[in-house]
Amino acid sequence: MGSSSEMWTAKVSLPLLAKMIDHSLLHPTMTDTSISDGLAISAKYNVAAAYIKPYSIPQARKALENTTVSICAVVGFPHGNSSTETKVFEATEAIREGAHEIDMVVNIGKVLSR
Questions:
Q1: Which residue among 12, 42, 86, 114 sits deepest, i.e. has the most Cβ atoms within 10 Å of its Cβ?
Q2: One digit per residue, pLDDT tens: the chain, 114 residues?
Q3: C-alpha distance from residue 67 to each of 26, 43, 46, 71 (Å)
């Protein structure tokens, strides 16, 4: 490497930047319409992934079918308090429904207790 005053330059385009974004559609008051609007934004900007609750997987599959946006379903959301068996079931079902990725929340209280 060079001196600390050496400048590094990275060329970034909006499409490259968009592929670094995971679009979260997880707010508890989101309606089907607001989720649909969020999925349309995910598709428009071709983000890396749309993060959704498992019940929205069919809606996301339809909205994102001709895009490269991944569907990520959350499991054990938001606090990770579900049992391991429940999380395994949720994850298996989400993949069966069409999710490409799973974001599983750990049991925060258990982690902090160790």
A1: 42
A2: 555 667 888 888 999 999 999 999 999 999 999 999 999 999 999 999 999 999 999 999 999 999 999 999 999 999 999 999 999 999 999 999 999 999 999 999 999 998
A3: 21, 6, 7, 11
Please name the residue that has the structure tokens 């079931």: 89
Give the whole-angstrom CA distance, residue 17 versus residue 50: 15
- Residue 70's DSSP bridge partners are 49
Give pTM, 2 decimals.
0.86
DSSP 106: P
